[in-house]
Amino acid sequence: LDVFTYDPGYTSTGSCKSAITYIDGDEGVLLHRGYAIADLAENCEFLDVAYLILKGELPNVEQKAKFENDITHHSMLNEQISFFYRGFRRDSHPMAVMCGVVGAMAAFYHDSTDINDPHQRMIASYRLIAKMPTVVGWAYKYSQGQPFMYPQNKLSYSENFLRMMFATPCEEYVPNPILTRAMDRILILHADHEQNASTSTVRLAGSSGANPFACIAAGIASLWGPAHGGANEAVLTMLHEIGSVDRIPEFIKKAKDKDDPFRLMGFGHRVYKNYDPRAKIMAQTCHEVLDELGVKDEPLLKLAMELERIALEDEYFVQRKLFPNVDFYSGIIFRAMGIPTTVFTCLFALARTVGWIAQWNEMLTDADQKIGRPRQLYVGAGPRPYVPLDKRG
Ligand code: CMC
Description:
Blueprint: E1 21-24, E2 29-32, E3 35-36, H1 37-43, H2 46-55, H3 61-72, H4 80-85, H5 94-104, H6 118-144, H7 157-166, H8 177-190, H9 197-206, H10 212-223, H11 231-242, H12 248-256, H13 277-292, H14 299-312, H15 315-319, H16 327-337, H17 344-364
Antiparallel strand pairs: 1-2, 2-3
Bound molecules: carboxymethyl coenzyme *A (CMC).
């Protein structure tokens, strides 16, 4: 007899064991390899956290230098991939371009197909982490009709990314340390989050032994939706739609109306039922970035803060333990930095690549893991005789 648990949305199904990320949703705790997210965001560069997530420990001085060197030397995309970009319409959503380009990378790095070789797995991991800023930078440049910028190894990971986004071949790029720091922090806050939809997608795709670039492309596709990584874009769209503080009650009412599909974007989380620790750091970073850029009285920030205040006092949100999540303030920072709304989720994907690839590696070395294969509750027709075409009504 087949016995299984019916659990739509896997709300109570543990699909794996993992030593990477720990979340206590009731207490608002998020740890990577045992380190609190606030400590990592405060003290680390993104590549330190990438190393930690991938390898289990923070790097020492030599390990840090070697890892940075290894990553920077994989940051270039095969030149042939630039032609792949040119197949897209200029007005394509950059996430659509990302799904396509990262999937296409499976056709370029043939040694990465040997997923049973730990060395090849690590090279595939380095390639993905290293090339993702170039992939996103080029997706943005392509959308603008500007020339692609090539990575520069002397720059840090975040500097390099910001340069590929905002520099042109005609102008020397001068990194702004505050913006670089903010970008590092934003990437750290998004680096991993245990078995969310996109990470589970990467694991499920990888459980069949699929190519790592193809698995990460699947993760990018899953992240795109507004209930997941696409929420950062959706928050900005929503704030623009609300438009002014006096319209907030109207939208709060819509969010509470069960006949209206509208939800307060950037609010709520499957696991956090107290607060999202990433959101606190993101709100603080938002103020720092706006100060640095000399943005005074940013109307969208005022609107977001007022929306948060009103929602947190509303019984509907209190009862359901709905708090701002990581995506609530990130879009305001991105916008202030000059990043267009459609690129927001690409930044989430860039950062989450570290978590995806670490979880993929962990799965492939876990003897308990099998091909992912959920069961179903069949609710269709019972057995019945075949009806020939001329007898069908
Ligand atoms: N606005 C209004 N009501 C909400 C919201 C919201 N943002 N989120 C949840 N609810 C209500 C929901 O209608 C339900 O009410 P009831 O019990 O009366 O039917 C209750 O709260 C529980 O919601 P749920 O949909 O069962 O919760 P879930 O765990 O399945 O969904 C979520 C989690 C994040 C998908 C959901 O809160 C949501 O859609 N939020 C908005 C999108 C968003 O901000 N996503 C980013 C998540 S954090 C970044 C990431 O890791 O991707």
